[in-house]
Amino acid sequence: MKSKQGSKPVIRLVGVEKTLGGQPVLQGVNLEIPRGKITTVIGKSGGGKSVLLKHMIGLLKPDRGQVLVDEIDIARLGSRELNEVRKKFAMLFQSAALFDSLNVFENVAFPLREKTIMKEAEIERKVLEMLEAVGLTGMGHKFPAELSGGMRKRAGLARALVMGPEIILFDEPTTGLDPLLARTIHDLIVETQRKFGFTAVMVSHEIPEIFGISDYVAMLLDGVIVEMAPSEEFQRTRHPAVREFINVGPRTEVVTSGESRRPGTHA
Amino acid sequence: MVASAVAGFGRDTLWLVGEMGRMMVFLISTVAWMVRPPFRFLQVLKQIHFIGVKSLFVIVLTGAFTGMVLGLQGYYSLRKFGAEGWLGSAVALSIIRELGPVLSALMVTGRAGSAMTAEIGIMRITEQIDALDTMAVNPMQYLIAPKVLASVLIMPMLCSIFDLIGIYGGYLVGVELLGVSSGAYTSSLESSVEWKDVYGGFLKAISFGVIVSWVCTYKGYNTTMSAEGLGTATTEAVVLSSVLILIWDYFVTSVLM
Lengths: 267, 257
Fold this sequence. Notes:
heterodimer, A: alpha/beta, Rossmann fold, 6-stranded mixed sheet, 4-stranded antiparallel sheet, 11 helices, about 40% helix, globular, B: mainly alpha, elongated
């Protein structure tokens, strides 16, 4: 069955529109996410990238249009069917969203305990394996509050990986990290993607770093996808607005990351 | 100017009706998730510990002083009619019928309700609730339902502890301090407190348990994405559930009478 689906896009957005708090955020997004690749959506801060990502996993429902996961329109599903589809997914949130009341081990074990009937010994083996894969060996007993930003992202990634999802969504995985740490998180994403073979969808404004790690890049501008191409090709785009965005990348970066640190201005 | 005032009033009314509807839907879906497996006994136990055991101290303290002040007030009022022998009945009835359920609910609102709102609000702001959703774990079932269930189970117990301590507080002041006869205190209590009073008090406590947990979890769950949002949500939760407790108390009393 997998080989039959092989060439088809795993997620397809068709004419997705969304208005939040009176502001039109998405205005007819058409986007196809290729299976087994890393696809990055770039765009301005506050431009609706996170909103786009939340549509893919059904955290937000479109006002108009379709969100198709393996050709099933998830916007029309009831909560039970939606939960079935969500088993294919994992998401790494901007803030990592670890549960404060659980330590790192329990956080990573959480999906296994909730959604599988694995024995405790098996869970332990699996969790330790994941912690090792993200470089957190021996940190299982720590609580999220005791971890640095980078470590929290790693723990979040371990929790995302533990169920062996087909698709992982990354919501600005390197926001708030210094450039060196950002690179190690990027490398970790690529490394785990090669190892586990999941489809990765990432939203980011880390230009030009993301060109090196993404297979495909798409740009969200004024609520629509204006350009989507393989990474190499994308960098040679002729689209004037996209050219402007990626060429002044480093300087915009200073401005935008400063903005995103202000509370309440999530993208 | 009149037009804008009318428009404003209309807008507020619409919002209020909408908010009441949303709160009702929230409560109904909580109950729906409560009766659906998997049942989360451990979560309920944790919440019982948090809401019940950790509120014990403040309940005992307020219960004791409420009973004591009732003993004092009651004694001096009743003595005017030479009826200080009825002190036990006066203290017990006011505590069992009214003060026990209401004051213990207000104390739980302040101690556990505000903490519930803050906890859930922080989970909302830091996307932990979205994370539960993405892991196909329903946050209503995992987070909200255990709190509401625990609150409904524990409120009558806290209320009965409040009642006992309060009545004993009245005894301490009336009998030990002011010299009412111990037999009169207990026999007047025994002859005037009926099963209906006790049962009415418990009914109130159960419904207050619903109000506190419902309002406080709702406000936390719908916190807006900012630090002020969290502060506002906590304040609103405490004020709204306290007010609702008192209003609901009036209606239940008028029905029970």
